């Protein structure tokens, strides 16, 4: 070893010891007859002191940032201690300095607040990773993955590696494909998830399976998506929904305790219908209230009292009118209210306008629609909203209840942000259950499986499959933390007849079903146990624990929005000889783009 | 849960309890008024007893193999106990039977000794995995991976996930490539190993990294190779070779103890030169001796005494003559000896012939080359070989010492096999160290890096780089168990000047070196610490612990020799729309092959 101790471990008790340290130059300070160097490694920072007149002093004065050093010296007590630093009570009086490697000046500062822009830091990601704020995210990731494994191992789960070179999956996102040299013209696909394989492992009797596994989706990328991402993938046999919820509530509780030392209370369960009704989202941020109140009955009753020409047409014709109450925000200025109106009118949100009402100090309600409604009506609204003096009521309306709820959800989240109610250090965790089996696809003009076609319906809703399939609820569940869906899954169908009916409702003929899903259906004929499972997005789970906005910061070498790793230069061109071996050609039009 | 207990846990102490079990029908036996069913799950087998006259009895008589059942019954003591079975003292008197799923008759028997051939079992791998001998390998794999993580975590290693979609690596095996839709004409490559990325993580100051990670090589497959395989990949900073050897010897010791309850003694270290000299292999099977003795001096001296025409030309002109002594094999028949001669003459081995000598009971040596040598010479041979009465000496010779040693190594392993000296339950573990830096490539007509071009030379051999590079030894090491290289690695070069010299010796101009390895060399300019590491092949490591001949049996869903997963049907065709999106074409000649 090039060192006897790390840069993070020396304390006052070590004074007078002779030690050898190795690390990087974080900072050099020259102060008269002394030079001080902060030496950094993964474990911390230790101050080195060099006295004028020594050889080491001369060497130290010629070093640059990020040089790699080995020093031998004596631990001494510092004169001016640094309480911010675990090693802040001591320093090293250096006798001997060896430059293990010089360093060019890095293109940005290696500090928590760096002067490097995103692109530059990504190009030199290996330097960006030296910043302790970035490294800590990856340390957290290691620890979370390890604790997940520890918990699941203790619960009898087996981690089974499933293949990366698989077959193309029907009904999913776009696959990445890999041309096969040994089987020209044929392609492997990279798995979007090991869903099929984990169900096969249940058919095999593995009973409890998990895997922390890379998955791949060739989609156009958004800020929180990566072409490759990591799932904690789990499946259990001979279970019902309650067993899964208990098992993985236990896992979350273990993680919160082991990593953050937080005692997570029992997870509340909210039906999908309630989540949509009160939060306008299937992943409600329950760190704060501000739940929706439906106001269409009050407004429609008021409109019914009025003559046609006096009606407020926006509300009079709206299928849905919903409000949220922002506590203490009656002081919002015109400018702030205009900004909120602009916010909901953004194309990504798409509301037509925003109605507000303030509860004034003397108890009257002042609203942007004063001229359409009596104070009585406005008071009823305030009462329905449980609004008190000083509160601000924000109201959206629309013809499509679901769409309007989603708009109101965005407004609610924005108000939560403005009011500081979304503290990343506070956690609110819940299960959203009873998802619908199907959602209507305008694009495909048919019902689509909301989760996937192997998800089982609630037994009590099975009769509805024949009469009103859109109303059927699934044994499907999501774990939601702070408005983020960290995991989700379902109890699968293990009954062949029920599976056939589900395919029928999805619009597949028996032949189409066989062509698309025959492989798994055949396996099920050989004795499939009742089973179910779920998968967590590890990247999101870690980001959440780290309080990050983007999953990118908890991935060592992430890709940018064009799917590029600018550090590695991937993707890149390949040799003609490789194309010849694979018997494929790149089309000319794309070659000219190169 | 569909059960209160598993099929592996009931004992005599549980008698009189009412339990619910779920699992698969392993076997049905009808005996007069009773029917017995062996119910199987991952945890074991429990006998179910059905009494004539009950409803459950009628149901039980109509079940088939592999039906999935749920039963409720009372635990009773068995009349005829089965000591082979952990649950063999009890059975369940079944009151209630529910068929959770029927099953088609499986295409082969779900027994340790199955009647299914390899191809059939691979096509129905999900049924093959029900066989407890196969499942146990995957349980072992889970346990080994978990214990590796536990050990490395305790030693301060961080598991960091590196990307799967990377860039093509120079100087390796053939890459699998993935066309990029977002960057038409460009390709990602799947990593052959995270070598470059783990070295970058050292530049980043991660200090101790590991990852259990999938790697990919598009090579023509042999029995013990798979296109995707799993590495335990490790790297450390501020270390010398001794630190790495200690750390990973510790890991092996932990695994042997935790998994097999074996106290592994300190690992012997053998230089590569000695391994070649005494075993003819850089991965010697040291479970048995039978080490090589070089005999050219004795034979050449004998030849020198003789007239030209009386010489045994085969030995007289051989650059290398080596023998092994097979204890107690003087009784080998002519037929056995002929078979050994045939063995070494096989094209895969390529020896021209085999010379043998027996030490007879009365002490004389009888040899296949009696007519060329006096009894005195033969006695000297026997003495050099430390052969005793009843032993058999087997001798190979050739012009190329290395090639002949490799042939003799194959013969030694075959004799070890015949003599039962290669017990898979016995383990002999060692380090092979001091590998040469370079090996000559006839194909490339230049020296090639034996490990990879970032491997550092032994400091004391650096002067030889200028005078005799082929003699330079590397800081490279392999861990060998029972003749299998389970892991290997090296201390890397962190000095830019030394790296340049190494590239020069490998025949690269500075421009070529920059083009091929510039990416990592540039990173090294920003302060690279001394570092080194190694990687284990997890598949091989598990096979070894499981006593398997092939790595295939410890992989859940392996591919066959054509790189196909016959169960999944991968690789397969892709839609034209996907090719259009990727802007690639399959060549016509390969399309006609489809």
Structure report:
- The structure is a homodimer of 594-residue chains.
- The first copy, chain A, is of the alpha+beta class.
- Chain A has three domains: 12-101, OB fold (Dihydrolipoamide Acetyltransferase, E2P) (Beta Barrel); 136-273 and 429-554, Bira Bifunctional Protein, Domain 2 (BirA Bifunctional Protein, domain 2, 2-Layer Sandwich); 288-418, 2-Layer Sandwich (Gyrase A, domain 2).
- The first copy, chain A, is built from 18 helices and 23 strands.
- In chain A, the strands form five sheets. Chain A has an eight-stranded mixed β-sheet, sandwiched between helices. A five-stranded mixed beta barrel of chain A has the order 1-2-3-5-4.
- In chain A, a hairpin with a 7-residue loop joins strand 7 and strand 8 (187-189).
- The two termini of chain A are 47 Å apart.
- The model of chain A has no long low-confidence stretch (mean pLDDT 94).
């Amino acid at each position: 070893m090039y060192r006897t101790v790390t840069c993070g471990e020396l304390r006052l008790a070590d004074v007078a010891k002779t030690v050898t340290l190795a690390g990087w130059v974080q900072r050099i300070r020259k102060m008269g007859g002394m030079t001080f160097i902060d030496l950094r490694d993964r474990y911390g920072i230790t101050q080195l002191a060099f006295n004028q007149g020594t050889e080491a002093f001369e060497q130290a004065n010629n070093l640059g940032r990020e040089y790699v050093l080995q020093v031998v010296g004596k631990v001494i007590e510092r004169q001016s201690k640094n309480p911010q630093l675990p090693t802040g009570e001591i320093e090293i009086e250096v006798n001997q300095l060896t430059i293990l490697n010089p360093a060019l000046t890095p293109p940005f500062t290696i500090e928590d607040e760096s002067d490097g822009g995103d692109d530059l830091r990504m190009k030199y990601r290996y330097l960006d990773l030296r910043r302790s704020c970035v490294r800590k995210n990856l340390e957290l990731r290691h620890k979370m993955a390890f604790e997940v494994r520890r918990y699941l191992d203790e619960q009898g789960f087996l981690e089974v590696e499933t293949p990366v070179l698989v077959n193309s999956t029907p009904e999913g996102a776009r696959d990445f494909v890999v041309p096969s040299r040994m089987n020209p013209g044929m392609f492997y696909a990279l798995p979007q998830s090991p869903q099929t394989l984990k169900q096969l492992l249940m058919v095999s009797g593995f009973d409890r399976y998990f895997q922390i596994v890379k998955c791949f989706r060739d989609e156009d990328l958004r800020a929180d998506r990566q072409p490759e991402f990591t799932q904690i993938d789990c499946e259990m046999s001979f279970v019902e929904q309650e067993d899964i919820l208990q098992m993985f509530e236990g896992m979350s509780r273990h993680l919160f305790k082991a990593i953050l030392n937080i005692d997570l209370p029992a997870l509340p369960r909210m039906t999908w219908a309630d989540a949509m009704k009160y939060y306008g989202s299937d992943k409600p941020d329950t760190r704060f209230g501000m739940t929706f109140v439906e106001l269409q009955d009050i407004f429609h009753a008021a409109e019914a009292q009025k003559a046609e020409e006096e009606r407020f047409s926006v509300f009079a014709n709206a299928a849905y009118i919903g409000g949220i109450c922002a506590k203490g925000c009656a002081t919002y200025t015109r400018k702030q209210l205009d900004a909120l109106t602009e916010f909901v009118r953004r194309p990504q949100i798409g509301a037509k306008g925003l109605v507000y009402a303030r509860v004034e100090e003397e108890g009257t309600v002042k609203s942007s629609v004063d001229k359409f409604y009596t104070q009585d009506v406005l008071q009823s609204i305030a009462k329905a909203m449980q609004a008190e003096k000083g509160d601000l009521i924000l109201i959206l309306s629309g013809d499509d209840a679901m769409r309007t709820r989603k708009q109101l959800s965005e407004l609610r989240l924005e108000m939560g942000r403005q009011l500081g109610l979304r503290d990343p250090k506070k956690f609110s965790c819940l299960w959203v259950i009873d998802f619908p089996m199907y959602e209507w696809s305008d694009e495909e003009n048919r019902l689509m499986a909301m989760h996937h076609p192997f998800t089982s319906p609630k037994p009590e809703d099975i009769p509805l499959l024949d009469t009103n399939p859109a109303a059927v609820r699934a044994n499907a569940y999501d774990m939601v933390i702070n408005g983020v869906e960290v995991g989700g899954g379902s109890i699968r169908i293990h009954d062949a007849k029920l599976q056939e009916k589900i395919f029928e409702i999805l619009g597949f003929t028996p032949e189409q079903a066989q062509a698309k899903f025959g492989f798994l259906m055949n396996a099920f004929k050989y004795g499939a146990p009742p089973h179910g499972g779920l998968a967590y997005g590890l990247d999101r789970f870690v980001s959440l624990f780290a309080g990050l906005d983007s999953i990118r910061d908890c991935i060592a070498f992430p890709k940018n929005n064009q799917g590029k790793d600018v550090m590695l230069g991937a993707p890149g061109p390949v040799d003609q000889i490789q194309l010849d071996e694979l018997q494929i050609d790149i089309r000319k039009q794309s070659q000219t783009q190169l």
